[in-house]
Amino acid sequence: MTKTYAVIGDSIAHSLSPHIHNAAFKELDLDCTYIAYRIPKEELADGLEGLKKIKIAGFNVTIPHKIAIMKYLDKVDEDCNLIGASNTISNNDGKLIGYNTDMDGFLEPIKKRNLKIEGEDVLLLGAGGAARAIVAGFAKEKVGVITIANRTKDKAVELRQFAQKIGVQTNAISLYEIGNNLSSYKFIVNATSIGLKNESTPLPTETINQNTVVYDIVYMPLNTDLIKKAKEKRATVIYGYEMLLGQAVRAFEIWHGIKAPYDVMKRTILGGF
To answer: Distance between CA atoms of 72 and 181, rounded to whole angstroms?
Structure first.
């Protein structure tokens, strides 16, 4: 019997996950299929019941459900517990088991480039579920100070409390308090949806230089405004698709217990642009 997997969220029309996983299934000749399933914010409980009814084997979770889903899970892994959010679920006979692949997915492209994290300072834009995972990832690698900048400062303050609890020194500011000098940060990470609709980055990018690492987790479009400006300044850039690939590989291996076809998944992502 064909096993069904999905990605849930709102909106998910642009999601590349179905292409990535279906290509992997085809490559390894697995009798599985992967679909995108839109669940609006207020319909999560009903949506999950629907997924259980069709005996979904596993699913990924994206905006806006990563934190809200936690209360519907029967069991969660250590990273989920730490981050307070889940993005990968296995359905074991009606029991939902949550994992979080955001942290490892985020760190993987940094490690692939052998970039030093320990003791370095970070400017992090955003304070949602992905930002929490990023803070946890940086904490694991003994980062210096993280400055969290968010449209609503309250959310940044909330994330700062989480960061301090796990031993990271942090500042919380609003986007409007960033100031003009970005050269003091080794890493600049965009964990907001700014760039998704080709918007201009709110960051003053003039002082970014070749020592800066700019990482935009928005993967559609490939070259966001922030990435384009970082390239002009000859900064090291990390694309959003690289985090997506890291997450997808980890989710695949959780569900199937076998090594994911990395190159096929990467080619599929890049073919989607």
So the answer is: 43
Threshold 0.85, pTM exceeds:
yes
82 token code pair: 């730490």
List of domains in the chain: 3-100+243-271 (3.40.50.10860), 103-238 (3.40.50.720)
CA-to-CA distance for 266 and 13, rounded, in angstroms?
A: 20
- Annotated catalytic residues are 66
pLDDT digit string, tens, across residues 105-127: 999 999 999 999 999 999 999 99
Q: What angle do helix axes 102-112 and 240-256 make, rounded to 10 degrees?
A: 120
Cα–Cα distance for residue pair 191/128, rounded to 1 Å? 8
